[in-house]
Amino acid sequence: MKIYHLNCATLRPFAFVLSDTAGYLSRANLIGHCLVIETNAGLVLVDSGYGIKDRSQPSLAMRAFMAVSGSSRDIRQAAANQIVDLGYTPQDVQHIVQTHLHLDHAGGLPDFPQAKIHVHALEYDGATKPRTFSEFLCNPGHWAHHPDWELYSAFENKWFGFDAARILEGVFPEIWLIPLPGHTRGHCAVAVKTAHKWLLHCGDAYLSRSDIDPESTSHSRPKWIQPLAQRLFPYLPRLRALQRQHSDEIDIFCAHDPFELSVRSFIGEILKI
């Protein structure tokens, strides 16, 4: 079994940085961390980043979002093209598990029209019938090909104390969907059991390693912003506790921190940037 860590969406949005003595605008350095998992039922993709058409023929809305977010238009970053570079074909991807359906996470769906899409039922409802600003950050064009959806609403099992549902029964390695609402109401983390430890892709449940690991200097935030981060990302306390108590069993990472992507090669998985 091989698990590849891909960057499928480089973003450099402007951010206001406030230090103890001054404030200034600076471009953040963000990525779109996706997984490609070899299983006994074909390839499984966790999140899909920006797709080929997002870069080559973006809609007006996509063009505006990518400009505001400083997103790369490098078509080589599309998951479908990187999968070819790894020696597979896009048709080998049988399943895509989405942490959520924001356009920088779900743009690759049209590149794998044969794949079944696994997502929280509340996420699907919010993306297809948007009512809030966050839900309007989805692009209906990403599922205009009418994919086969697998929607989850019952999370009756437990995974390290979190509500969870195992998806793809009979498929190995084990993959679990874990609701972490906040960023969106159907936002989920995705847990994958490897021979060494669990991988936990937290999507946008946090944005920087320093959010869950106080010893990390990766994009550390000023102390004044921590209360705001806790309101925007309500599962931070539980993820910090998980990191503190189970770091020997679980490798935790989010969707956008480039530092977390860069160190994955040191844990026995295969790294592809």
Structure overview:
It is a single chain. The radius of gyration is 18 Å and the shape is globular. The protein has a single domain (3-15, 28-271), classed as Ribonuclease Z/Hydroxyacylglutathione hydrolase-like (Metallo-beta-lactamase, Chain A). The protein has helices spanning 52-56, 60-68, 79-85, 103-106, 121-128, 226-232, 236-246, 258-262, and strands spanning 3-7, 14-18, 23-27, 33-39, 42-46, 93-97, 116-120, 148-152, 157-159, 162-167, 175-179, 188-193, 198-201, 250-253, 270-271. It is α/β, with parallel strands linked by helices and 273 residues long.
What labels describe this entry?
six-stranded mixed beta sheet; 8 helices; alpha/beta; Metallo-beta-lactamase, Chain A; seven-stranded mixed beta sheet; 15 strands; 273 residues
